[in-house]
Amino acid sequence: MPDSVHSSATLARRGLLFILSSPSGAGKTTISRMLLEADDEIRLSVSATTRPPRPGEVDGVHYHFVSDADFDRMVEEDDFYEWAPVFGHRYGTPKGHIRNALKEGQDFLFDIDWQGTQQLYQKDQQDVVRVFILPPSIDELRRRLESRATDAADVIDSRMERARAEISHWDAYDYVVINDDVQACFAKVSQILAAERMKRQRQTGLIPFVRELMS
Ligand SMILES: Nc1ncnc2c1ncn2[C@@H]1O[C@H](COP(=O)(O)OP(=O)(O)OP(=O)(O)O)[C@@H](O)[C@H]1O
Ligand SMILES: Nc1nc2c(ncn2[C@@H]2O[C@H](COP(=O)(O)O)[C@@H](O)[C@H]2O)c(=O)[nH]1
Known about the structure:
Elements: H1 3-9, E1 17-21, H2 28-38, E2 42-44, E3 48-49, E4 64-65, H3 68-76, E5 80-86, E6 89-94, H4 98-103, E7 107-111, H5 114-123, E8 128-134, H6 138-148, H7 153-167, E9 175-178, H8 182-197, H9 206-214
Parallel strand pairs: 1-7, 1-8, 2-7, 3-4, 8-9
Antiparallel strand pairs: 3-6, 5-6
Helix pairs in contact: 2-8, 6-7
The protein binds adenosine-5'-triphosphate and the ligand Nc1nc2c(ncn2[C@@H]2O[C@H](COP(=O)(O)O)[C@@H](O)[C@H]2O)c(=O)[nH]1.
């Protein structure tokens, strides 16, 4: 490969905050896990939650499962970028070391709701990319929640009741993708991520590179 091609392919860039939201059961966790597996440059922002773990969920990997008292303390100590009550529990994004890592080109993936998306966007418009996942139909949404078999019937009912309210926020997102076929949806979300990484303002290495080209 010629030097010029090689160096342009490895230009420094700023990381981004890639948000996936959807009504419960539309598939954002599924798509998130596929992205994390396929792409080394993006890391999950692990939220804290007061909800109990589902079977198979691991503390510190899928969520930080905390008590109400711990969550209160984190709020008081200003540990969150954003937090919100969702489905009777509280969820929040710990600040961690996101700001410094962004400068180094690390991307972060957020599986958060519309309230958290609004708060993150207000704090950091330039780095945030907002993607909303829609189910192909309301019947299919219920079918997915039931087939996931992780929630009791009353929990599924309450999530279905909230679905229309969640969907009403679709137009506060930069991209909207219908998750009918999971592979097709994953491909579209991956394309969005790839295009956003290429945005001129994120490619911090472009100025010295172009200067060199023109010298
Ligand atoms: N395109 C698809 N076709 C069929 N089933 C799907 C598809 N996408 C996801 N699923 C299944 O639907 C169920 C719900 O998906 P998932 O847990 O990813 O939803 P979610 O949006 O993250 O929900 P929540 O907000 O409750 O965490 C899972 O059992 C998943 O395997
Ligand atoms: N505002 C935030 N919303 C969050 C966060 N982490 C998860 N979520 C959202 O909560 C619901 C329910 O999630 P579940 O895992 O219990 O099914 C879902 O919409 C998530 O996107 C967060 O840190 N902040």
